[in-house]
Design a protein that fits this description.
Length: 387
């Protein structure tokens, strides 16, 4: 009988110890939630690597600054960035990898097609998503998604207005990528606004991802049509080829693009003198004289071997501070679920006003779009100069 009692006591004690251990582990897990895990996705290798690397650099810089200043409501940020090579499938894989890591907020993705693909998953998971530079309309088609940059439709219409208002040309040719949502999206609204502004589109020449090396036919048609300016709503890699081929065929004209051209001065083996006078619409110019830009550029150059940040870096830098502002407004706490964090952030986004390096005053609509004024810059002597 005594032995039975001893066995019962031993089992009871063992169970109590196990329960105590489990409880202590659970308490430890809860108390350990003192960070906010923010993931980032973008191309750090491949043809669009200039964009993704700039976003990664600037985001990491902002995280260091925010954490050094006490974090968000006392919560420190953990940041992890995944390469997607500007590929939709790889971007989804990167998203799943970051989810396994414990991501609670997504700052991404960088480019439009991957961003649209990933947005389907963030919608399903109710994860807050702030893309710094995904400009296609569908990037923010769901209520959990917002953006820092201008949308493609906004870039197209703003470009047409800028060309008209500054009397840059009345006859314009367009060379665009019909296989890319970014490029075709900008072209469509540019064409609509150009007609309203009295600009004649004398040639609209398309190419695709399978025919993006030889542009002599498109350039010849633009030249024969008497184009005073060629609008390039495309990425910098193709633009560098177009500028080189325009030179070799003797076509001298003005070139105007959008944020996709930012990075053209970094193309390997590209003669940057060919970009002299190229204009582009942008939310950020590194040599601007305002205090916010000077502070950001100085910090970025100090951190990254004196490299001058592009507008993708500026968008990402602002993105982290936007998340901070929304998290503080929404009173985010360490123990909240990813879904609850999303609900708080998306409600806060339409109530905050943020002063950043891409605008002294940014607000957002419920459909995820920012309200801010565009700027333009021109390439002069191998440097971006505000217009």
């Amino acid at each position: 009988m005594k032995r039975s009692i001893r066995k019962i006591l031993a089992v009871t004690l063992s169970l109590a110890m196990v329960a105590s251990f489990v409880a202590s582990c659970g308490a430890k897990s809860s108390s350990a939630a003192t960070t906010l895990k923010i993931g980032g996705i973008g191309p750090t290798t491949g043809g669009a690597a200039v964009y993704g690397q700039a976003v990664k650099n600037a985001a990491e810089l902002a995280v260091k600054e925010i954490n050094a200043a006490g974090g968000i409501n006392g919560i420190k940020i953990e940041f992890k960035f995944e390469d997607d090579e500007h590929d939709a499938e790889k971007s989804v894989n990167a998203y799943n990898s970051l989810k396994d890591w414990g991501m609670q907020v997504l700052m991404g993705t960088v480019t439009s097609t991957p961003c649209i693909a990933v947005s389907e998953y963030t919608k399903k998971d109710n994860m807050f998503m702030l893309t710094p530079s995904g400009s296609a309309a569908k990037c923010v088609q769901y209520e959990n998604a917002f953006r820092v940059c201008f949308s493609d439709p906004n870039q197209g219409s703003a470009s047409a207005k800028y060309i008209a208002n500054n009397k840059l040309a009345t006859k314009v040719a367009v060379i665009y990528d019909s296989s890319d949502v970014y490029s075709s999206g900008i072209y469509e609204t540019f064409a609509q606004e150009a007609a309203a502004q009295g600009i004649e589109i004398v040639a609209a020449e398309a190419f695709t991802a399978d025919s993006n090396k030889d542009f002599t036919v498109q350039l010849q048609k633009a030249k024969s049509a008497g184009a005073e300016l060629v609008f390039l709503p495309i990425y910098y890699t193709e633009a560098s080829l177009i500028l080189s081929q325009a030179k070799s065929t003797g076509f001298e004209t003005k070139f105007f693009g959008c944020d996709g051209l930012d990075g053209i001065l970094t193309v390997e083996n590209f003669d940057t003198s060919l970009a002299e006078g190229v204009m582009l619409l942008t939310p950020f110019v590194a040599n601007a004289e305002d205090a916010a830009t000077k502070k950001f550029v100085a910090a970025y150059q100090a951190a990254y071997n004196n490299e001058v940040p592009n507008q993708f870096a500026a968008d990402a830098y602002d993105a982290l501070y936007i998340i901070k502002a929304a998290a503080e407004k929404g009173k985010i706490t360490a123990g909240m679920s990813t879904s609850d964090i999303c609900d708080s952030l998306k409600a806060a986004m339409v109530e905050i006003t943020v002063a950043g390096v891409t605008s002294p005053s940014m607000t957002w609509t419920k459909d995820g779009e920012p309200n801010k004024e565009p700027k333009a810059m021109k390439i002069v002597s191998g440097q971006y100069v505000a217009m």
